[in-house]
Design a protein that fits this description.
The protein is an alpha/beta fold. Strands 1, 2, 3, 4, 5, 6, 7, 8 and 9 form a nine-stranded parallel sheet that branches. Helix content is about 50%, strand content about 10%.
Length: about 350
């Protein structure tokens, strides 16, 4: 047996072992309750309070109402404060008696959510109205959170410049869009961590969940600004986890693909496009699964498939035109229906 033959045998064995290990690691994701178990007091053991940014609609609202349902099953007290466009629910937090801080820029909607929580549970509800797309909003937030024992932070707030994808220079009011998107998607994540992480560091425990997106897995033309901002969220989260995991703090980037929210033009739910409630229930099972999760099995498979497509194919002109046509086709009926509703209302 010559050296060349030995080389190929060794190479083949290495490839088999490599993909065997990857398959074994992936198989753990099929049984999160077995491989990533959470004790009943997991969240409450981290601290007295949870803070969630964004609470008025979409995934965030689904999280909030799931939280309310869970609250009815417990006699423990909680408090709710509301932060911007919530995209995350924390049912276990209520089940285990954590106090919760939420925020949003939409006061009317938040008041409705707060009333619902109050009517349903009889508990105390506080609302903070803030717009993370603006400058200089964090001083007041820090004052409101200063004396709280915060065990969980969910950085969920985010903005998508427009649903219909377009090239960078075709974006309307590009200068303003850049500023708003960086403030909302990038600056907010770093600032909220800066406010809350020191307390977790001092206590040696805590959980931070930063909402990214599946589109951050690869360069994603036509959603350039949005995808790039979510790359920041992923890398920032993974680096922070490396810095603070020895302190007992869990920091994770959550990167979903399709979820039926306003940001996705309320796409119909399917095996690929999850309801906000379905995504929330699934993603919370993977908090102990590493510094990044797609939040569900179908989205994990989508992430793998997306990364398997050659960049030249993914970024080709024909692919970009197909993406634009697909999104326009999917969103046109909803846009027309919404316009008709507005006109009828007027």
């Amino acid at each position: 047996m010559d050296l060349i033959e030995l080389f190929f045998i060794f190479l083949g064995t290495a490839v088999i072992v490599y993909y065997g290990v990857k398959l074994l690691l992936f198989s753990r994701m099929l049984f999160p309750k077995v491989f990533f178990p959470q004790p009943k007091n997991f969240f409450s053991s981290m601290g007295e309070w949870a803070v969630v940014t964004g609470a008025s609609e979409g995934i965030g609202r689904a999280y909030a109402f799931e939280f309310i349902i869970k609250v009815k099953k417990t006699k423990k007290t909680f408090c709710v404060l509301c932060l911007c466009k919530l995209h995350f629910r924390l049912p276990q937090l209520a089940e285990q008696g954590m106090n919760v801080v939420i925020m949003s820029r939409t006061k009317a909607t938040l008041d409705q959510v707060a009333k619902k929580i109050g009517d349903t549970t009889g508990r105390k509800v506080k609302v903070i109205v803030t717009d993370f797309m603006k400058e200089n909003v964090f001083g007041e937030i820090e004052d409101q959170l200063r004396d709280l024992n915060i065990g969980v932070l969910v950085n969920n707030v985010g903005m998508l410049p427009r649903v219909i994808p377009c090239k960078f220079l075709e974006s309307a009011e590009l200068d303003q869009t850049i500023t708003k998107l960086i403030n909302c998607n990038v600056k907010t994540v770093a600032k909220m961590c800066k406010i809350i992480l020191p307390g977790m560091d001092n206590r040696g425990k805590g959980v931070i969940l930063n909402m990214s997106s599946g589109v951050a897995s690869v360069p994603f033309p036509l959603y350039t600004l949005y995808a790039a901002s979510k790359v920041f969220v992923e890398r920032f989260s993974q680096a922070l986890q490396a810095e603070y995991k020895d302190k007992g703090i869990i920091i994770q980037a959550v990167s979903p693909f399709g979820v039926s929210t306003r940001m996705a033009a309320y796409a119909e739910t399917s095996f690929v496009t999850l309801s906000p409630e379905g995504f929330v229930k699934s993603s919370l099972q993977y908090i102990r699964a590493g510094d990044k999760t797609h939040g569900s099995i179908c989205h994990m498979v989508l992430g793998w498939l997306l990364q398997s497509i050659p960049p030249k194919v993914l970024c080709s002109e024909s692919m970009l035109h197909s993406l634009q046509d697909y999104v326009k086709k999917k969103t046109a009926p909803k846009s027309a229906a919404q316009a008709a509703f507005v006109n009828k209302g007027n």
